[in-house]
Specification:
By secondary structure, the protein is of the alpha/beta class. It contains 9 helices and 7 strands. The chain starts with 6 loop residues before the first helix and ends in an 8-residue tail after the last strand. Bound molecules: S-adenosylmethionine (SAM).
């Protein structure tokens, strides 16, 4: 369950994406709003952390749920954008890697993260550290893309260029559940929701992913420019999946709300 992700590449491509991310992040916004609506606790949190806050649009809404919100992201460009546009409501901004959080244990009663934890090294290890960051009774809420997300893109690249990994790997619901249980959380909500987006052509999809900053940062990726012939083969392979609505791109979104037990042996 360890992700061989190049963090420098992730931070660079999200920093570059900051100015246009909100123009295309419709799915991310929708899923984030649904996750916020599922939060228990009547909007009465004291200290909340948003991991991978991105442009801060969702963090702004998180501020309606908690008295003090910390926005954290490892992409300086994203954090600058969030500070400029939402610094009026967000209490503080931290540029840090979620795999090395700079907070004392029990600092938060809510940790929130939308579409970001899939970029971390290992979900089981991260959930154990987030358990420590939460006060007893505190809530962790997150969404991540799960197994089979963008399978059409992955399959088309596999046909065109079998020797390289072109799509980051995603966890199964069972793997996510096992990591939650092993970290000692109580599950309040664990769901997966399949959505399909449609595109006029493969380039429209890949260019949208680029605008979102969703660069392939996997260590098995090709480090050379993808050749013209391979791109043409990729487009041909993707075209075989065309439907009446256009070229499909599947998302399988896993959403999670868990609680650190009040009587916890480790707290
Ligand atoms: C897809 S964006 C999601 C942004 C926002 N949460 C939303 O829902 O629109 C993912 C964000 O997570 C950040 N990120 C990725 N890996 C991270 C890590 N290890 N630590 C901190 N931030 C990370 C990226 O820089 C990016 O801003």
């Amino acid at each position: 369950m360890t992700n061989a992700i190049d963090k420098k590449i992730v931070a660079q491509s999200f920093s570059r994406a900051a100015d246009h991310y909100d123009d295309v992040a419709h799915l991310q916004r929708e899923v984030g709003a649904e996750l916020l609506a599922l939060l228990p606790g009547n909007r009465h949190y004291r200290r909340a952390l948003d991991i991978g806050c991105g442009t801060g649009q969702l963090t702004r809404h998180l501020c309606e749920y908690a008295a003090h919100v910390t926005a954290l992201d490892m992409a300086p460009g994203m954090l600058d954008f969030a500070r400029i546009h939402h610094g009026d409501v967000i209490a503080d901004f931290i540029c840090a890697d979620a795999d090395a959080l700079p907070f004392a244990p029990a600092s938060f009663d809510l940790v929130f993260s939308n579409f970001a934890l899939q970029w971390c090294a290992s979900l089981p290890g991260l959930l154990q550290r987030l358990h420590t960051q939460l006060q007893a009774g505190g809530i962790l809420a997150f969404s991540i893309p799960g197994e089979n997300t963008l399978w059409e893109l992955k399959q088309s690249w596999q046909q065109a260029d079998p020797s390289h990994v072109h799509v980051n790997p995603f966890l199964t619901l069972k793997e996510v559940e096992a990591a939650i249980v092993a970290a000692g959380f109580e599950i309040l909500h664990l769901g997966q929701d399949r959505r399909t987006l449609y595109y006029a052509n493969a380039r429209a999809l890949t260019s949208e992913l680029k605008t979102l900053g969703a660069h392939n940062a996997n260590n098995g990726r090709s480090t050379h420019l993808t050749g013209k012939q391979r791109v043409a083969a990729f487009i041909t392979a993707y075209e075989t999946l065309r439907t009446a609505e256009g070229l499909p791109a599947s998302w399988n979104i896993i959403s999670v709300i868990v609680r650190k037990p009040v009587l916890d042996r480790s707290s």
